[in-house]
Specification:
Layout: H1 8-14, E1 22-25, H2 29-40, E2 45-49, E3 65-66, H3 78-88, H4 95-103, H5 105-114, E4 121-122, E5 125-126, E6 128-129, E7 139-140, H6 146-164, E8 167-171, E9 173-181, E10 184-192, E11 197-202, E12 205-207, H7 229-236, E13 241-242, E14 247-256, E15 259-262, H8 266-269, E16 273-278, E17 281-283, H9 285-289, H10 299-310, E18 315-322, H11 328-333, H12 336-346, E19 355-356, E20 358-364, E21 367-369, E22 381-383, E23 388-389, H13 400-418, E24 427-430, H14 446-455, H15 462-477, H16 482-500, H17 518-521, E25 524-529, E26 534-539
Parallel strand pairs: 1-2, 1-12, 2-8, 12-22, 21-23
Antiparallel strand pairs: 3-7, 4-5, 6-7, 9-10, 10-11, 11-24, 13-21, 13-25, 14-15, 14-20, 16-17, 16-18, 18-19, 25-26
Helix pairs in contact: 1-13, 2-6, 2-13, 3-4, 7-16, 14-15, 15-16
Length: about 550
């Protein structure tokens, strides 16, 4: 990783005739935040996405955004937020980056409020709710539609700069390739999905393209549009991956057509309780096993416990989430949209009957490796949001994803602004035509998906992982489609990360290595592709701040 080469002010003071544009791939929370930060600095950008912001996965985010605003009289602090985040991530995140995230969280939320985000307030101050893995109420929210509210505010703010010409929006465009030469990024080639035309967009690139849902078709709560193709492309182009094996299973989901539907952690934050039948009686197992936090333990813990009780011979039936005791006022003011979703997609009213739930893939803590300024290992290529590995370590706390996306997008934009190449500007259309493949499957081929699903569950074993690695390579060798080949190479990197991490930590549980091994694996998994082979190593976590308290 490199030092800043210039400041944004230095570039702006020179006032070149045409300030080079920064290319942002993705128009969700991270992409919009990056665009807003650049535009406010007077730097133009292109916002590239297959769909408009209104259809980004960020709109689907439900529960809330964390910040130690301390509006509930609990003496909450940024240090407390930092400690909970580091502990929840089992000390695998960069402490310096996490401290930047947590210490800036209150200002980040105040910025969103200033943009008009209609978060729940009382006497002009945000109301905060409890969320898993946190000892204080610090999650600001808007019922269970927080993502939609934040996206609306950011979209409106960015549109003002679109009108001024500082933000150029390219909806219905897909990243085709990256222009990388000698370890530096000089732009992106994008495909117009309507006109079937390719364009070369010069300038630095910020990837804000979401998680790797395409590796697990039908198993994730996220948008099927978040295929992971941008991360796969960056990886095969030489960018490092970090902690790819850290995949979060959200404990409370149910199946719908083509994906999983999330029952927000807000339901448990407001008093929802998990149980399973044992000896003909309800067993509220989380409350018995974890009396301090109960149903609000970190997501990796709750998901593992659900799997364990489902396989307990004394238990029968499915795990259920009981919300029938919640007050009518809670449903009307805080969870009305969640109730509507359950009725629409499941045909059951959660206020009247418990819901059968099971874990589903919800978030990818690992991704493109970035430093605390959101630089990747390739010069002038940056990453933010779920496609990047940064703030969450081995397990993400609920409420930190939206915070990480907004703050990460801002940080990536500031770094990109400081490293702009003044003479690297412009956009040029190049040959398109009927040969361009417009419609692509949203996920890896069925055989590859089956390998990943079987080997990368909540509980993993070296035997299954090793077999999956070998079989995945056979599929890669026989695949002629470049897009699917890239996806499977990315999938192999995830498998190798899990195979090489011979311990259990956070979201990664090995049945053959059930203990945590700080001496050997309190380190970042690094995967690198040289064009032929994937090399996996472990890198020490460097920090100026030190450990959580």
């Amino acid at each position: 990783m490199r030092n800043d080469t210039a400041s944004a002010n230095d570039i702006l003071n020179k006032r070149p005739d045409k300030i080079p544009a920064v290319n942002i791939i993705g128009a969700g929370l991270a992409g919009l935040s990056a665009a807003l930060a650049l535009a406010r600095s007077g730097i133009s950008c292109r916002l590239v996405s297959p769909m408009p912001s209104e259809r980004a996965q960020s709109v689907m985010a439900e529960g809330g955004i964390n910040a130690a605003l301390d509006t509930m009289g609990e003496n909450d602090t940024a240090a407390g937020h930092f400690n909970d985040t580091m502990n929840g991530g089992v000390y695998l995140a960069d402490p310096d980056a996490v401290w930047a995230l947590c210490s800036n969280a209150p200002e980040t939320v105040r910025m969103l409020l200033a943009l008009g985000a209609a978060l729940s307030t009382e006497n002009g101050r945000p109301v905060l709710r409890s969320f898993g893995g946190q000892k204080k109420k610090r999650t600001a929210y808007a019922r269970s539609s927080t993502g939609k509210i934040l996206m609306t505010a950011l979209t409106d703010a960015v549109r003002r700069y679109e009108a001024e010409g500082l933000v150029q929006r390219y909806s219905h465009h897909r990243l085709h390739s990256l222009n990388i030469r000698n370890g530096e990024c000089f732009g992106a080639r994008v495909l117009d999905l309507h006109r079937r035309v390719l364009s070369d967009m010069k300038g630095s690139v910020i990837l804000a393209s979401g998680g790797m849902n395409g590796l697990f078709p039908g198993m994730t709560t996220g948008s099927v549009l978040n295929t992971g193709d941008a991360a796969a492309l960056a990886f095969v182009s030489g960018a490092e991956l970090a902690n790819p094996e850290m995949i979060q299973y959200h404990p409370t989901t149910f199946p719908i057509s083509g994906k999983r539907c999330l029952v927000s952690e807000a339901a448990r934050g407001e008093g929802g309780r998990l149980f399973i039948m044992r000896n003909n009686a309800r067993w509220y197992f989380m409350e018995e096993k974890y009396p301090e936090l109960g149903n609000l333990m970190p997501r990796d813990v709750v998901s593992r416990e659900i799997e364990l009780v489902r396989n307990d011979k004394e238990c029968s039936g499915q795990v259920c989430l009981d919300m029938t005791a919640l007050d009518r006022a809670v449903w009307e003011s805080r969870l009305s949209d969640l109730r509507e979703e359950c009725i629409r997609y499941l045909g059951r009213d959660p206020a009247a009957v418990p819901l059968e739930v099971s874990p589903g893939i919800h978030y990818f803590m690992g991704g493109i490796n970035v430093d605390k300024a959101h630089r990747t290992s390739i010069a002038r290529l940056y990453a933010a949001g779920e496609c990047a590995c940064q703030y969450h370590g081995a397990n993400r706390l609920g409420g930190n994803s939206m915070l990480g996306a907004v703050f990460g997008g801002q940080t990536a934009a500031k770094t990109a602004a400081s490293e702009i190449i003044p003479d690297n500007a412009g956009e040029e259309e190049i040959a398109g035509g009927e040969e361009l493949e417009i419609m692509q499957p949203a996920g890896v081929p069925d055989k590859a998906a089956e390998l990943l699903r079987e080997a990368l569950g909540i509980f993993r074993s070296g035997e299954k992982l090793e077999s999956a690695v070998q079989k995945m390579q056979e599929l890669i060798d026989n695949e002629n489609d470049a897009l699917q080949r890239n996806r499977m190479i990315l999938g192999k990197a995830v498998l190798l990360g899990a195979l090489n991490r011979k311990e259990s930590r956070g979201a990664h549980t090995r049945t053959d290595y059930p203990e945590r091994d700080d001496a050997h694996y309190r380190k970042t998994t690094i995967a690198v592709f040289d064009g032929k082979e994937i090399a996996v190593s472990f890198r020490d976590i460097q920090s100026e701040r030190g450990e959580a308290e």
